[in-house]
Amino acid sequence: MAADIVKRTVTLFWFRLRVQQPIVEYIWPKSDDIIDPSYMEGKWENDGIDNLIVDICSFPLIAQEFSNESKRQIYTKAIIFQKPKPEQPPLQDDIQDIQSAQSNICSSV
């Protein structure tokens, strides 16, 4: 079973993609990439997509001339699992502004 999966994977990525015309490329989205439904598939709601990022890619994007948007041809979308975006910690300047405002309020009381 496992040997068959390895054999099929090697056949797909080593032989079939190299002999196909036109030549295609496969791209693995990286962890923490922003989700783009135009070339990614997964289980998410459209209204909450802005708060999600890529966790794991289980199958790569297969496309031709992906870097050129006008000539881009997508054959298979990347299949991904998503995770929520981490909350951004407040900036150091904001923390200092808050602390100085608090000290001004305390000194005026």
What can you tell me about this protein's structure?
The protein is an alpha+beta fold. It has one domain. Helices cover 32% and strands 26% of the residues. The chain has two helices and six strands; from the N terminus they run αββββββα. A three-stranded antiparallel β-sheet has the order 1-4-5, with no helix packed on it. β4 and β5 form a beta hairpin. The termini are far apart.
Topology:
Blueprint lengths: L1 H18 L5 E3 L12 E2 L10 E8 L1 E4 L8 E4 L1 E7 L7 H17 L1
Structural shape? elongated
Q: Approximately what portion of the residues adopt beta-strand conformation?
A: 25-35%
Widest sheet, order of strands: 1-4-5
Count of alpha/pi helices = 2
Instruction: Write down the Rg.
Output: 23 Å
Spatial gap, N to C terminus: 75 Å
Task: Provide the succession of SSEs.
Answer: HEEEEEEH
Task: Write a concise keyword list for the protein shown above.
109 residues, 3-stranded mixed beta sheet, 6 strands, 32% helix, elongated
Please give a quick description of this structure.
By secondary structure, the protein is an alpha+beta fold. It has one domain (24-104). It has helices at 2-19, 92-108, and strands spanning 25-27, 40-41, 52-59, 61-64, 73-76, 78-84.
